[in-house]
Amino acid sequence: MGEIICFSLFFGCSDKNPLDSNNNQKDTDILNKNGFPLVVGNQWVYHLRGEETTIWFNPPDTTVTSWDVNVLWKITAMEQVLGVDAFRMETTHHIVSGPDSGRTGTMGTWFAVKGDTLLGVASGTNTGLDPITAQLNKISSVSNQDEPDEWPVNVLVFPLKVGKEWAYFRLDPTFLGKKVVEAIDEISVPAGNFEAFRIVRHFTRDESESKIIYSTNQWFSSIGVVKYTENSDYEGVRWWHDENGNIIDAKNIRTILLYTMELVSYQIKE
Fold first, then answer.
1. How far apart, in whole angstroms, are the C-alpha atoms of residue 243 and residue 9?
2. Which residues contact 118 (CB under 8 A, 6 or more apart)?
3. What is the Cα–Cα distance from 171 to 186, expressed in whole angstroms?
4. Number of domains the chain is built from
5. How far is CA 114 from CA 85, 156, 199, 246, in A?
6. What is the chain's alpha carbon radius of gyration, rounded to the nearest angstrom?
7. Peptide bond into 18 cis (omega under 30)
8. Residue 14 and residue 254: Cα distance in Å, rounded?
9. Which helix (H) or strand (E) holds 230?
10. Measuring CA to CA, which residue among 94, 92, 152 is closest to residue 126?
């Protein structure tokens, strides 16, 4: 029955299935006690809103594109990937508005627990849809040779407390940023009200021909991720190439991307 409820939600039903978070123990305490709810069968339904603003400098022009996506996360199996026993989380995007309206795609990501750390172990090939905001963490895809690209990534390091920080990618925390537990917030989303850790990741890359400022905010409660925002601001040169790879045009642009994803419903096994 739970699968039917969430499947209907994914394609537009408005019913919700929240658990009661008003209990004697705070959501944040439960998360620290139990960890992220990695159990086969658990699933989460989100609404994602994205907006891209492109500013062209020569000639001057501005374009704004927005889209809405229904996102389903579902833990479907425990299996071995890259030598690690990990939970496979399948992420399905169904675009309901915007330039690619009607498209649906699914990808897989594998998560494991090692000591006090929740790790992103690997990511499968995506279907052409941007997988960034549909994950617990921003990740790079596994190559065709099935070799990890700077895996694993540190999603959460318990116990969580305000002020705690850790390297997101262990190989390069300076370039790719670190995660910081910035605050505990009371979050209200379509699925209900939650107490959640706000965990921030931020980095700036300033090179000779381009600059990017990137940040994410993730809110984790006892039932998982309840809200996610992502902001990237890129300024630099965009090149166009012919079929032989020769540069035929180049323009200075600024691209601002904003994502907001909120929990709509969920099913968590005891």
1. 43
2. 35, 36, 38, 111, 112, 136, 154, 155, 156, 157, 158
3. 34
4. 1
5. 10, 11, 20, 47
6. 19
7. no
8. 37
9. strand 224-241
10. 92
> Side chain identity at 52, as an amino acid letter?
E
Model confidence pLDDT, tens digit, residues 130-171:
333 334 433 333 333 444 444 578 899 999 999 999 988 755
What's the pTM value of the predicted model, to 2 decimals? 0.80
Question: Using CA atoms, how far apart are residues 160 and 260, in angstroms rounded to an integer?
Answer: 23
Best CA proximity match to 74, nearest among 125, 102, 48, 37: 37
Instruction: Answer yes or no: are the C-beta atoms of 212 and 230 closer than 8 Å.
Output: no
CB–CB of 128/109 below 8 Å?
A: no
Question: Long-range contacts of range 169-176, CB-CB < 8 Å, 24 or more positions apart?
Answer: 175/203, 175/205, 176/203
Residue with tokens 């339904």: 45
Give the residue from 266, 264, 268, 267 showing the smallest Cα distance to 96: 264
User: Distance (Å, rounded) from C-alpha 174 to C-alpha 167?
Assistant: 8
Which structural domain range is residue 225 located in?
A: 2-14+23-267
Structure tokens at 128: 């052409």
Give 89-144 pLDDT, tens digit per residue: 988 889 999 998 999 888 888 899 999 999 888 776 544 333 333 344 333 333 33
By the 8 A CB rule, do 108 and 135 touch? no
